[in-house]
């Protein structure tokens, strides 16, 4: 029962084909494409894949992007596209967003992936889940599996573009992260990095005080590897949290 998992972000589509729709299933193939190349999937990397029996996707992009993905699937397979929408509860997590369905699907799926990753290795604890990409999200979950709330802030690229567009003389290359920057490139890169780190560390403090214990900390996203070394506290860097979450949701939905 081959299973296709798709993660559509703001700049790239990542996909993975598994032997079954459940955690721990064998990974058969995987890949990534920039959104402008979606229309080449059917005659490109997907042409060599087996027919999936199920598909589940997570998308933050517009409906038009999802439709382009569905069109590529329809060219070669007869499998319905199913997209995750955040709900009041799923796969052991409760959603305390004011309007649960308005929570970004990627945030919801990543939290589900992190929650079950934690349970597979020990007892339930509070956790902070960070995704570092085009935008940065910082989520708080308590030890009962209740999503308490989260931050959204601009990623490095958006910060730099905002400064370049709003401030004269800042069209400079990306620099390095330094404690005491002595040139504009390093000052911009260091400022953005430490601004993100500060927001993340503030959420850890909030969760620690609210829950009365130290939270587990997970970081994911395309730029997570850039951010992780500059944190003042350790984070477990997990590249696959979205796919881990999609597999867990698929297990609950498709296999019971």
UniProtKB/TrEMBL annotation:
Where does it localize?
Answer: Cytoplasm
For this UniProt entry, what's an example GO CC term?
cytoplasm
Cofactor dependency: K(+); NH4(+)
User: What does this protein's record comment on cofactor binding?
Assistant: A monovalent cation. Ammonium or potassium.
The positions annotated for binding substrate are: 97, 104-107, 184
Q: Does the keyword Cytoplasm apply?
A: yes
This protein's assembly is summarised as:
Homodimer.
Protein name stated in the entry:
Type III pantothenate kinase
The species is: Ramlibacter tataouinensis
